[in-house]
Design a protein that fits this description.
The complex is a heterodimer of chains A (about 80) and B (about 350).
Chain A lengths: L36 H6 L16 E5 L2 E6 L3 E4 L1
Chain B lengths: L12 H12 L6 H8 L6 H15 L5 E10 L22 E2 L2 H13 L4 E6 L6 H17 L3 E5 L5 H9 L4 E3 L9 H4 L5 H13 L3 E3 L2 E3 L5 H14 L3 E6 L16 H14 L4 E4 L3 H4 L1 H9 L5 E3 L11 H10 L12
Parallel strand pairs in B: 1-3, 1-10, 3-4, 4-5, 5-6, 7-8, 8-9, 9-10
Antiparallel strand pairs in B: 1-2
Classes of the chains: A mainly beta (about 80), B alpha/beta (about 350).
The complex binds iron/sulfur cluster (SF4) and zinc ion (2 copies).
One zinc ion binds next to loops of chain A.
């Protein structure tokens, strides 16, 4: 398993073609497009659920001090 | 810590009554009285919170109990609690996943390092099967070898045999929430009944474990139902009541419910304290969204005497340091570790 920071933006949100929060198509730029501004805010309160690269739902593990999110294709994102 | 009486307390009859009945005599308010507290106007809120705070100081003391929680099995639950992103019956983005034991032990150590004395292991299940019970036993043994912390569990509905096993393994507290008032429950859960929840709560108490039995408010229940819930919880005499505020989750039936008003949330905190003067009243999920940073302080000065630090089961909390620094600032000592059982 590898860590791929490229799968997430500043807080695991975008930097890929999909939004980490809602899984919708995203330009991938930061700041996020208008459509996903709320998603980026929400990503300070919860981990991303979708892989920003492929939109697969990730296996997310939350612990008191951190979280990890794993895409079966693109690896693990850890915060 | 003595506090000069808030002048407004005498201006509202229900607060004056509560001052005598709850603060002085230690008897919680009745359902009808709680409804009056929940209906107090905004101007009365500071006085209600102050009274609740005094009740907490008088009957529980200054200590704040700090806890960390962890999900050993996330998602894929067969139940349909309409607020829950972990139900497998909704189109929620939360995927089923198990935490391995080394990660669990690491989380227990990190939790203890914050000064927390409680570590609660939670599973998204209707009730535990043999595989989960074996995992729990193994986890408890590994945590006990590694760190000094009280272990609590929340594994859904239990059989008598499972209750006895958990008690024998040294689980000192068991969480099983009522979530909402009996009269609103069928609107929120259809796959099991209120009675089934009460049965597990009763068995837990009878086995000598501390009962942690919580509430989730802001799900569309009326104020009457909120008062009903507080009274129903009080009747169970739980050791702890975790108070959650709805965080509407994508894909669940309550996703469009909206976030509850912060003042209503604070009124509920005061009311729950006035219903249960001696119970550990814990800030649980949703406070970041409903109340923000300021609300955390208001609640701790309004009847709350316990917090969950760090993240929740599927969502993120405030950084542990933010809460711990606030406790220092408020001059509230963290409750010290005492191995129970
Ligand atoms: S039983 Fe627990 S995990 Fe399952 S749907 Fe209800 S609240 Fe969620
Ligand atoms: Zn989005
Ligand atoms: Zn991917």
């Amino acid at each position: 398993m590898k860590t791929v920071p490229a799968a997430g933006g500043a807080n695991g949100s975008s930097n890929g073609p999909f939004c980490g929060h809602c899984g919708g198509p995203d330009g991938g730029g930061l700041p996020a497009s208008d459509e996903h501004r709320r998603c980026v805010e929400l990503l300070t309160l919860e981990p991303p659920r979708y892989c920003a690269n492929c939109r697969r739902r990730m296996k997310v593990q939350v612990t008191p001090a951190g979280w990890s999110a794993e895409c079966s294709r693109h690896g693990v994102l850890i915060r | 810590m003595t506090i000069p009486a808030h002048p407004a307390i005498t201006r509202y009859e229900i607060l004056e009554t509560a001052s005598e009945q709850v603060l002085e005599e230690g008897r919680g308010l009745t359902q009808e009285q709680l409804l009056e507290v929940l209906r107090l106007p905004d101007e009365a809120l500071p006085a209600a919170l102050q009274l609740a705070h005094e009740v907490r100081l008088r009957h529980c003391g200054e200590d704040v109990e700090v806890e960390g929680i962890i999900s050993i099995k996330t998602g894929g639950c067969p139940e349909d609690c309409h607020f829950c992103s972990q139900s497998g019956l909704f189109d929620s983005p939360v995927r089923g996943v198990w935490l391995d034991i080394p990660e669990l032990v690491k989380a227990a150590k990190e939790t203890a390092a914050t000064g927390a004395t409680e570590f609660c292991i939670v599973a998204a299940v209707r009730g535990p099967d043999i595989k989960l019970m074996n995992q729990i036993k193994f986890a408890i043994d590994r945590i006990n070898e590694a760190v000094e912390i009280n272990i609590a569990c929340s594994l859904g509905m239990l059989t008598q045999h499972q209750v006895d096993q958990l008690a024998a393994w040294g689980v000192h507290r068991y969480n099983h929430n009522l979530e909402t008032a009996r009269s609103y429950f069928p609107q929120v859960v259809t796959t099991h009944s209120y009675e089934e929840r009460l049965e597990t709560c009763a068995m837990v108490k009878a086995a000598g474990m501390e009962l942690c039995c919580g509430a989730l408010i802001g799900m569309g229940e009326s104020l009457e139902q909120r008062a009903e819930l507080a009274a129903q919880l009080a009747a169970l005499e739980p050791h702890e009541v975790p108070l959650n505020f709805l965080n509407p989750r994508p894909g669940t039936p309550l996703e469009n419910q909206g976030i509850m008003d912060g003042k209503d949330a604070l009124r509920a905190i005061a009311a729950f304290r006035l219903a249960m003067p001696r119970t550990v009243l814990r800030y649980a999920g949703g406070r970041e969204l409903t109340l923000g940073d300021l609300g955390t302080r208001d609640g701790l000065l309004g009847g709350i005497n316990a917090v969950i630090v760090g993240n929740y089961l599927t969502t993120l909390g405030r950084p542990a340091d933010a809460d711990l620094n606030l406790l220092v600032e408020l001059n509230m000592p963290i409750k010290e570790f005492q191995k129970s059982l």
